[in-house]
Fold this protein.
Amino acid sequence: MLKPSREDLALIANTIRCLAIDGVQAAKSGHPGLPMGMADVAAVLWLKFLKHDPRDPQWMDRDRFVLSGGHGSMLLYSLLHLAGYPLPIDELKRFRQLDSLTPGHPEVGHTVGVETTTGPLGQGIANAVGMALAERMLAARVNTGDGFDPVDHRTFVFCGDGDLMEGLSHEACSLAGHLGLDRLILFYDSNAITIEGGTSLACSDDARLRFKAYGWQVIETDGHDTDKIEAAIRKALRVTGKPVAIICRTVIGKGSPNKCGTHEVHGAPLGEDEIRLTKRALGFDENQSFVVPERVRALFADRAKRMHGLANRWRRGFKAWQAAHPEQAVAWRRHTSGELPENLEAVLPSFDVSKPLATRSASGVVINALVAAMPQLVGGSADLAPSTMTWIKSSKGVAPGDFSGSNLHFGIREHAMASVMNGMLLHGGFRVFGATFFVFADYCRPSLRLAALMGLPAIYVFTHDSFYVGEDGPTHEPVEQLSSLRGMPGMTVIRPADPTETAAAWMAALKNTGGPTALLLTRQNMQVIDRSVYPCASNLERGAYTLWQSGTGTPDLLLIATGSEVELALAAAKQLAGANVRVVSMPSWELFESQPPAYRDSVLDPACTRRLAIEAGVSFGWERYLGKSGRMIALDRFGTSGPYKDLAKRFGFTVENVLARARELLA
């Protein structure tokens, strides 16, 4: 076993610096400052502490490493290359180039060893909180504490001044401190520089006091003294009951004679002349690029060998643990396989057609039925469980020191909720939902977008889905949010018409493992559609289906509606005597577009150009289904405050108005 000396760690750090400046220079763009500034910390962490196996990058009990400041991606790529991941030096030379394995910001699923997609600042911190939370929750379910615990790892995250200025970091770090996530260690690259100049231009926070106020343990260290860095990490590993923030006092662009400590090195190549000076100062050949000394390769190869042995010992221990603890072994497989239970539809509740019910309430009934069959389903709300109906009655809330519950109290932290969900899903072991009022999807949006980009199967329960919120007024009445989410690639939006479609919507969401799903649910009660008379609600999984037609063949008029407006369309259609009217329930554009063309034409008959769509939101986007002859009853303005039935009359969401508009089309 090779024991790295202080000189070895300095050589590794300088190797990382040179790889970073070479990659950025070759790309003619990028951010060399962060990799150069954090190279010493990274060298100590990766060579002496980080538990991982480059031969098995998905080993479940590996430590997670998150680079929240994703702009400094050459730091991560250099580390992955040196550690032995399948990232050859030629890919470092192709930094930021089309189809390379080294994109400008790290992307999970694109480069082996990257744990999450980072770039928008603050996201990596919140994702790391989610990973640490999932680790504790999974440990509470499977660890037996008798000599071998299958879940026993940590989450490490690098962040910078920009990350900590973003509001998301405040939400996420507050939650982590409250929960006491003691296997979360954050390294704060405190270099006091941002793009515009010194951080003093816009920020004078005391990070030490801030983290103490959150309930974190705070350790301060010189980010360029490897002995002190190692001592700080060892101290952090001994902390229990709270997360740890290690404030690393660093110099951005460390090693550059003329640009270190300035904003010039943050987001631009050093330039050929400065690179030569830097390499000379670091003891590297100024005429060579992308050089890795043999001693550095040997040190990382030795570390990789030892880590593979550690992983193999875990695998042997895990095999024996499975045999000794069959009940926990079943729980492990259930949580980590990603598979849905067989015949899950059989547990779905039925709803009394004589008892109207809000789809948010129906969703709550469905959730509680589902968790009996799949306890890996967990979730919570942004302090709105009594309104979003998302409390799992058979379980308790996750609390500081007790992670065995299934209910997550995210607090009034919508953005952190969505980003923490992403981290939990990236960690594995759970299907996660988060809930809030639909209008506050705007507060979640950056994290929703990243879930879609990463293809994570997050489930968002967005209730109070339209102006029918009523008295709360326009600040709480979503109008453009529905159209906005439909415009997000990879997001599946479902707006069920009644309680039976709500149950089907949950099934569709659980089956959607390739991306996030947004369930849009009503505050107001809806009639339960009698499925002994009308088509089965499972048709929802096709995105749209014919709910009712007064005649046969090509209809004279198509009435297309989503969510709460389906009930309105059906009531109006039955009063259009003498016309062949088809009512289409269209809960999901995305599911509908995934169907074969023949099916889509069978629902939205191309021969029928008289089309009227009804939706309590903006009309933007509906032209794709309505064509030039179609019409729309929509709300292309903000709502107002008042009883929801009065608002329906004001905005034209009445049977009388639907009839009038339909007759105009038929005429």
In short: The chain has a mean pLDDT of 98. The first helix runs from residue 6 to 27. The chain has three domains: 6-307, 344-526, 541-666. The two ends are 87 Å apart (CA to CA).
